[in-house]
Amino acid sequence: MSLFDSARFQISAAKLSGLPTELEPEIAFAGRSNAGKSTTINVLTRQTRLAFASKTPGRTQLVNFFELSRKIDGGRNRVVVGRLVDLPGYGFAKANEAVRSSWSDLVGGYIAGRRQLRGLVIVMDSRRPFMPTDEWLIEFMKQRPEVKMLWLLNKCDQIKTQERRTTLRAVEKRAAEFGDRVTVQFFSGLKREGVDELAKTLETWLNPATTAMPPTPAAAKQ
């Protein structure tokens, strides 16, 4: 059984003041509303309705937390060892300025100041990586150099082999600007491609659980 099979919904937060106070490490997922972020989380955790996607891009402006746990005491009890965090999708074609501002404040505030954040998975459509909002997020992450990133090229089943090679070369070239803090991989929720690779990467971010938390940035506000 994978650690991610244990994922259970904990809480939703609409403001930074509503974020959980526990100190277990967190892995956040971000991406455009149509990039398949919710499907990625559901496939990873093998739960069909753990993460929900709004039918209207940009509508859901909540940060959702899912606890990860392991059995202890011979299986009689469980202990929380980390969390998956589903950040609001950035799909602004039908969103007004107030919604856009709310998204940037909430997501930007979480990323900038959340000391529990160990890694960020940026889910991108492999047919159209590095859209403007993806670029904003990638640039924003420069202020958290201690946080790992995974650029997940989703929906790879929809591109041909040669296009995969071309896309991978371009994305890896960009990732090289960040050194070894960025991992790149293809993924397909529909075909279940890349699931084990994704799980392995995320487990290395969470373990060992005794690793010291990174310091909170001086300018961060929660």
Automatic annotation (TrEMBL):
Alphabetized SUPFAM superfamilies for the sequence: P-loop containing nucleoside triphosphate hydrolases
Which of UniProt's keywords are assigned here?
Cell cycle, Cell division, GTP-binding, Magnesium, Metal-binding, Nucleotide-binding, Septation
What's the cofactor?
Mg(2+)
Keyword Oxidoreductase assigned: no
Instruction: Fetch the PANTHER family from UniProt.
Output: ENGB-TYPE G DOMAIN-CONTAINING PROTEIN (PTHR11649:SF13), MSS1/TRME-RELATED GTP-BINDING PROTEIN (PTHR11649)
One Pfam family per UniProt: MMR_HSR1
Q: Name one GO biological process term.
A: division septum assembly
Q: Report the residue ranges that make up the EngB-type G domain in this protein.
A: 23-208
Organism per entry: Sutterella wadsworthensis HGA0223
The upper taxonomy is: Bacteria, Pseudomonadati, Pseudomonadota, Betaproteobacteria, Burkholderiales
Name of this chain's protein: Probable GTP-binding protein EngB
What role is this protein assigned? Necessary for normal cell division and for the maintenance of normal septation.
Entry-linked InterPro entries: G_ENGB_dom, GTP-bd, GTP-bd_ribosome_bio_YsxC, P-loop_NTPase
